[in-house]
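Kindly inspect this today.
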Amino acid sequence: MMGTIRLVLIAAVLAYLAIVLFMYVQQRSIQYLPSRAGTSPQAAGLSGVSEERLVTPDGETIVLWHAEPRPGMPTILFFHGNGGELADRVGRMSYYQSRGFGALFVSYRGYGASTGSPTEQGLMADALAAYGFLLARGVTPENIAVVGESLGTGVAVQLAAQKPVAAVALEAPFTAAADAGADMYWWLPVRLLMKDQFRSRDHIVAVKAPLLIQHGERDRVIPAAQGKALFALAKEPKELVIIPDVGHDMIAIPDVWAREVDFFLARMKKQ
């Protein structure tokens, strides 16, 4: 009897270790869910948006969607979440244009028509290259507002911690991607094994720009508690909006975009 129990326990441990090994090897295919259609802004129904191709310092070619601002208006540097591609954010781009903002949407490496494969280091290289693109076009840091949704909040926080920007808006942010993963896969040693941890909690204190965090109260992908915890670590000036009866899909709600645009206009006029 004891021998049978021992064999069952050994089999269970081996099965668990096999699952852990599989998740470790496949983790980036779980963390990043790109679409590779590479739809152009014109094919997506946008006007006044150019498709730019930018070679990063490590040799990848990323796609940018760029809309010029109305005279005197800021430009939004936008970092999307882990799924889909830029063509899934057409409504957001149109909204920013309707408010007179310029916009630069970054298609990470491995997404859309961009080359390469996504990693945290790679996405940060893409973000820094996109920031440099705006500077080369004559956009000053005082006219750059940064927006990140979901996974893109990790990119936005690190960029704003490293480079001067006028304001930052985060939609459904995590304290770290590793924290969100640990909540979702509680039965795995995520914080030990995760390669791309996007530890926003380690970088947020270095963000000096005015900050707006918005989070859905019923978010089950990235719990609102993480948005609140990140907010607590951030420096002033900062604002937190918890949206009742909404989940992770809050990133697609136009009222969310409107609130951040109003925040940018109010804060950037005070500088």
In short: The mean pLDDT is 96. The chain is about 40% helix and 20% strand. The beta strands are 33-34, 50-55, 61-67, 75-79, 83-84, 102-107, 144-149, 167-171, 211-216, 238-243.
